[in-house]
Amino acid sequence: MFRPIAAAILLSAAFVPAVAGGEPIAFTPEVIGWADGPPSMPAGSKIAVLEGDPLAEGMFTIRVRIPAGAALAPHWHPRDERVTVLSGAAELGFGNTADRARVTRYEAGSFYVNPQRVMHYLFFPEETVLQMTGIGPWEIHSAQPAAQPEKPVTATLELSTVDPPAHSVLGDAKSITAVVDYEIRNFRPSTFYLSMQFETTTANQTFSSTVARVSPDNVLPPQPNLLAEAKGTYRLNQELEPILRRANLMRPIRFRIFLHEQTSETTSEVVAATDWVEYR
Question: What are the residue ranges spanned by the domains of the chain?
Answer without folding.
Answer: 7-136, 154-278
